[in-house]
């Protein structure tokens, strides 16, 4: 009497199964029993780890009967509970993207990171210049991604000024367990980009943050333009001051979007388990 894949039962099916396991219909509401068969079978259909009955209708019926013996309206209550849970607002993962920029190049990369993070379900992203960010904002974030342009192989000193304001958060361990990621721009690929990314990670380690790497599938684009420490872009200097601002290459922007999404996904999973 296998009913593989079937999760709908007619009243007639329910009566037949109930009769086979000796249900006393004067004690058990047949509609409740019918719903119970579908609900209990669904556990296995949704997740093999919770598949107890292997779609066996008699075993499924016994589970439904056990519940109905405890609470005659068990399945009405369950349906109401599920509806209530559906209506609950889902927890939102907050990601703060902070950039230190002189002329706007790093802001463009930060925007790609924010876009990627924002594409992750149930995620709220705030993108802010390091000039404006207040330490309190870090406390309410689940994930923090900070980045800077390079000045002689080191992050922009604006980052150091910002870090110097985080003493209170360090004392209270406010950032411990939060998810972190870093990004940087320079004008050349080999004049300090990796060093800047590494330098930006160090304060995260002091604060006990969980640093997300920028490793991923070794596609030709990632091998050519990626960096395992964080998102990066080498943006050539404009030919003269009046020229339009150069932007990261599209490959760098795409890797930055992926990085933003990766950090947001890790933060979301740690926060919600999803
Ligand atoms: C004073 C100064 C020092 C710089 N040092 C470096 C450097 O060491 N390596 C590099 O590749 N680019 C260097 N650059 C270039 C910037 O890092 C690069 O143009 C960056 O993308 C600027 O981003 P921003 O407009 O967001 O500040 C330097 C620029 C300035 C003004």
Give a brief rundown of this model.
With 274 residues, the protein is of the alpha/beta class.
Q: Would you mind describing this structure in some detail?
A:
The protein is α/β, with parallel strands linked by helices and 274 residues long. It has two domains: 11-87, no CATH class; 93-272, 3-Layer(aba) Sandwich (Rossmann fold). It has helices at 11-20, 30-46, 57-70, 74-87, 105-118, 135-139, 157-163, 167-171, 193-206, 220-225, 250-272; strands at 93-100, 123-129, 143-151, 154-155, 179-186, 210-211, 231-234. Strands 1, 2, 3, 4, 5, 6 and 7 form a seven-stranded mixed sheet that branches. Strand 5 (179-186), helix 9 and strand 6 (210-211) form a beta-alpha-beta unit. Helix 2 packs across helix 3 (57-70) and helix 5 (105-118) crosses helix 11 (250-272). The longest helix is centred in the C-terminal third of the chain and has 23 residues, at 250-272. Residues 1-6 have low confidence and may be disordered. The structure holds flavin mononucleotide. Residues 101-106, 149-153, 185-188, 191-192, 235, 237 line the site of flavin mononucleotide.
Helix segment tally: 11
User: What is the count of β-strands?
Assistant: 7
Low-pLDDT stretches:
1-6
Q: Approximately how much beta-strand content do the residues carry?
A: 5-15%
Radius of gyration, Cα only, in angstroms? 28 Å
Q: How many structurally independent domains?
A: 2
Shape: elongated
Q: Separation of termini?
A: 37 Å
CATH topology of the largest domain: Rossmann fold
Overall SS class: alpha/beta
CATH superfamily of the largest domain: Flavodoxin domain
Averaged pLDDT: 93
């Amino acid at each position: 009497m296998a009913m593989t894949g079937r999760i709908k039962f007619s009243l007639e099916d329910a009566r037949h199964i109930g009769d086979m396991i000796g249900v006393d219909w004067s004690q058990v509401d047949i509609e409740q029993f019918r719903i119970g068969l579908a609900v209990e079978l669904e556990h296995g259909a949704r997740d093999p780890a919770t598949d107890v009955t292997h779609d066996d209708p008699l075993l499924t019926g016994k589970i439904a009967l056990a519940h109905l013996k405890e609470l005659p309206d068990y399945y009405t209550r369950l349906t109401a509970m599920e509806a209530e849970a559906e209506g609950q607002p889902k927890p939102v993962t907050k990601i703060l993207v902070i950039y230190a920029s002189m002329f706007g190049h790093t802001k463009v990369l930060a925007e790609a990171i924010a876009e990627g993070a924002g594409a992750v379900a149930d995620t709220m992203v705030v993108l802010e210049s390091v000039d404006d960010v207040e330490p309190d904002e870090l406390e309410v974030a689940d994930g923090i991604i900070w980045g800077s342009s390079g000045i002689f192989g080191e992050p922009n000193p604006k980052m150091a000024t910002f870090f110097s304001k985080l003493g209170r958060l360090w004392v209270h361990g406010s950032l411990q367990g939060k998810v972190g990621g870093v990004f940087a721009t320079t004008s050349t690929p080999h004049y300090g980009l990796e060093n800047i990314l590494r330098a930006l990670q160090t304060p995260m380690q002091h604060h006990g943050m969980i640093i997300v790497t920028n490793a991923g599938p070794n596609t030709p684009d990632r091998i050519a333009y990626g960096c395992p420490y964080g998102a990066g872009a080498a943006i050539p200097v404009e030919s003269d001051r009046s020229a339009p601002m150069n932007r990261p290459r599209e490959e760098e922007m795409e890797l930055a979007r992926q990085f933003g999404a990766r950090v947001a996904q890790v933060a979301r999973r740690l926060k919600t388990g999803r």
